[in-house]
Amino acid sequence: MASKITIIGAGSVGSTIAYTLSNQEIASEIVMIDINEQKVVGEVMDIVQGASFRDPISIKAGTYEDAKNSDIVIITSGIARKPGQTRIELTQTNVDVLKSITPDIVKAAPNALYIIVSNPVDIMTYVFTKISGLPENQIMGSGTMLDTARLRYGLSEHYHIAMRNIHAYVFGEHGDSSFVPWSIAKISGCTLEEFSDVMKSHGKNIPPLDREKMTAYIHESGGRIIENKGATFYAVSVAVCRLCSILLSAYNSFSTISSMMHGEYGINDVCVSVPTIIGPNGVQGKVPVKLTDEEIYKLQRSANVLKDVIKQIDI
Question: Does the N-terminal peptide bond of residue 120 adopt cis geometry, omega within 30 degrees of 0?
Answer without folding.
Answer: yes
